[in-house]
Design a protein that fits this description.
By secondary structure, the protein is an alpha+beta fold. It folds into two domains: 193 residues, 2-Layer Sandwich (Fructose-1,6-Bisphosphatase, Chain A, domain 1); 127 residues, D-Maltodextrin-Binding Protein, domain 2 (3-Layer(aba) Sandwich), CATH 3.40.190.80. Helix content is 27%, strand content 23%. It has eight helices and 18 strands. The strands form four sheets. An eight-stranded mixed sheet has the order 6-5-7-8-10-11-12-13, sandwiched between helices. Strands 15-14-16-18-17 form a five-stranded mixed sheet, sandwiched between helices. A three-stranded antiparallel sheet has the order 2-3-4, with no helix packed on it. Strand 2 and strand 3 form a beta hairpin. Bound molecules: 2,6-di-O-phosphono-beta-D-fructofuranose. 2,6-di-O-phosphono-beta-D-fructofuranose (FDP) binds next to loops. Keywords: Carbohydrate metabolism, Hydrolase, Magnesium, Metal-binding, Signal. Its EC number is 3.1.3.11. One of its GO terms (biological process) is fructose metabolic process.
Length: 407
Amino acid sequence: MKLLLLISTLVAVNGYITPLLSVRSPTSRSPTTFLRSTATPPASPTRKAPIFDEVCETTGVTLTRFMIEVAMLNPELAELPSLFSGIETACKAISNMVKRSQLTGLTGLADGGGSINVQGEEQKQLDVMTNDVLKRALRFTGKLGVLASEEEDTPVDVPSRKTDVMFDETSKYVAVFDPLDGSSNVDAGIPTGTIFGIFEHDEECVVEDSKDMTEDEMKCLVNTLKPGTDLIASGYCLYSSSCFFVMTIGNGVYGFTLDENIGEFVLSHPNIKIPATSKIYSFNEANMPQWDPPMRETVEKWRLGTGRSGKQFSSRYIGSMVGDVHRTLLYGGVFGYPSDKKNKNGKLRLLYEGAPMSYLMEQAGGLSSTGKERVLEIVPTEVHQRVPMVMGSKDDVQEVIDAYSKA
Ligand code: FDP
């Protein structure tokens, strides 16, 4: 039960206490030292994305090929393709599990009921199994130091298993994911999805066993969890009429569709851009009477057609974030789960729902905000922290932000 804690120095910068982290530069592998300020996270480096603007039915660009090009264009991301390949495999496996669940007895609650995750939510069989599938798929890439998931109580260390590692073992990344988002819908065959985000791992915070952690050890792990501005990549898989894999590495958003004939994700949506305005909103409207006045008033105007665009909005809400965000990215609109009197911080989780989806939304030209601040800039203090969110078409989200500033 040992946890190697090499982060020991705390320094005060601009009144904030920040850990002095020692990280390895990806190319030289020699240790370099920098200060990480919790107030102003460093801007994401500019990345190059391959230019593939054609979609082809027979000889399309596979996700594997795309990621090889990404690594060639961005040598610092050389290890990302093997991690993506793990996620891709997990998505294919989960897609199959979800599709066949009505026949294989995988519907319903885990352990016949009573299996509760750390957030007090009852787990479905598929929640537990998909979490396992992802953990295994990521562990075997050998690129992962720590991962945090909706279905894990604390971030878990991924032990190095030399025999299972296909490439150099570097523990280079931290992955956060929600294995089966929207799982309350899954038994009714409604779209669900997997959301993931990838950060660089502080290699000095190594955990040998995640049980019996002291408070300091826990802090070390939580320190590996960073604001969305530090994301290296994020994306989701949508299990619906098709299985989609939509991702960003910080230079645009790319969508791939699973071609079941060849078992590959093939580029189908190069460089997705969300329309700047639209007339669709997507909220659980039953909570509307409990929302903050600026939120409620803006949506009331949209209903009546008296908002900034003068258009009368229509409502589309699946109640499954990945499905709702996918439609919003493609058709435009506003998706959100605002705070209400009951849920002061809304419902969605910052680390593995809010931040990864906000990164995608911004990369597609949209906005994502709590109404008062940019979701990507929020520094997490807890793994399962919730965040109120409004994301989507730039002009429409800006209307909400302006309503909050006026209030
Ligand atoms: P679920 O509980 O089914 O996993 O955050 C989880 C989530 O679904 C989102 O996917 C979805 O947008 C939201 O909760 C739905 O919540 P409501 O049922 O309260 O509308």
